[in-house]
Write a structure and sequence with these properties.
heterodimer; A: five-stranded mixed sheet; 3 helices; 38% helix; B: two-stranded antiparallel sheet; 10 helices; 58% helix
Chain lengths: 105, 216
């Protein structure tokens, strides 16, 4: 299960994601992030309550970032827990994504 | 749509002669196993994290090769890491390349020719019947490497397998490859399966160097 809620803060649309991002929830995650990218010029994915991310989850984040790039939108990922940060680090996601410790807003 | 396995095998076919080109024999074998895992991941049958691989859906995909690997995985739950599975399938000596070639022939993209050299040695060639699929694969590969845009998932996977099979030189010039070496490395690192295939190839190279050292 995954829960995604939206909130506008200081010019950013913040998508707070809670739960596990894996093969079962990847479509839901990608859809929530892409929908935010469609609506707003600046989107921050807040992963403070994301417990786990698998390869399928990473692909979902990456494809949302791709949609943002194609539409000239700003897309940032922030608030990674230690276990999720480890997965992002191993994959070198910082080479292709903007990753912040804190929310950018 | 072609599978990742079919796309990379198609890339290995010389469009002029129909011969198969491969510069890293054992590396290619590992990379083709990686391609099958990518196909299973794209079909949402498996998922991976930093090391482990797990089946998320046992339903057949309709592709003989993928379904056979999926069934093998389901039958051996004690093998749980990507690396273990890469080596397991490699050791079984499955002819993944041959299966992909048969499928490409069946789809009317290649044809099979067999001849004899010096009346003894069988020579197999796979001339193109329809060269558009290979051109499409090459164009996607070049686009993924030569631009800074985030590629589609399939194209990220394609870059890593083509690199591991030593096939990038048939799509890009040496200067282009050298100039984008970091980009190729960054894209390949994004996928757990690619990282594990690279480690398996590095492990194999190390073992072979040790064997050569002992002989010398």
């Amino acid at each position: 299960m995954i829960e995604a809620t939206q909130e506008t803060r200081a010019g950013w649309l913040v998508v707070a994601v809670k739960g596990r991002a894996d093969a079962e929830t990847a479509d839901q995650l990608e859809s929530a992030l892409r929908s935010a990218v469609d609506q707003h010029a600046k989107v921050a994915a807040d992963f403070r309550a994301l417990d786990y991310i698998s390869s399928a989850g990473l692909r979902a984040v990456l494809q949302a970032a791709r949609a943002a790039q194609e539409n000239h939108r700003e897309f940032a990922v922030c608030g990674l827990s230690d276990s999720v940060k480890k997965v992002f680090d191993m994959s070198g996601m910082h080479h292709v994504l903007m990753i912040h410790g804190e929310l950018p807003c | 749509m072609l599978t990742m396995l079919e796309e990379v095998v198609l890339l290995a076919v010389d469009e002029q002669t129909g011969s198969l080109r491969s510069t890293r024999e054992f590396g290619t074998a590992y990379a083709l196993v990686g391609a099958v895992f990518f196909d299973l991941a794209l079909a949402r049958r498996i998922d991976t994290d930093t090391e482990a691989i797990r089946i998320v859906d046992r339903a057949p995909t309709g592709n003989t090769t993928l379904d056979r690997v999926l069934a093998e995985m389901a039958a051996k739950p004690h093998l749980s890491t990507v690396r273990q599975w890469i080596e397991e399938i490699f050791l079984n000596r499955r002819d993944l390349e041959g299966e992909a070639l048969s499928s490409l022939i069946g789809q009317g993209i290649l044809r099979h020719e067999k001849s004899r050299r010096l009346w003894i040695i069988d020579v197999e060639r796979f001339p193109m019947v329809n060269d558009r699929p290979q051109q499409h694969v090459k164009a996607r590969l070049a686009q993924a490497i030569l631009t800074d845009a985030i590629p589609e998932t399939r194209d990220i996977m394609l870059v890593s397998i083509a690199e591991q099979c030593g096939l990038l030189g048939y799509v890009l010039s040496e200067t282009q490859i050298q100039g984008r070496r970091q980009r190729v490395a960054n894209l390949s690192r994004l996928e757990t399966i690619s990282r594990q295939v690279n480690e398996a190839i590095a492990g194999l190279d190390f073992t072979r160097q040790q064997s050569v050292g002992k002989i010398v």
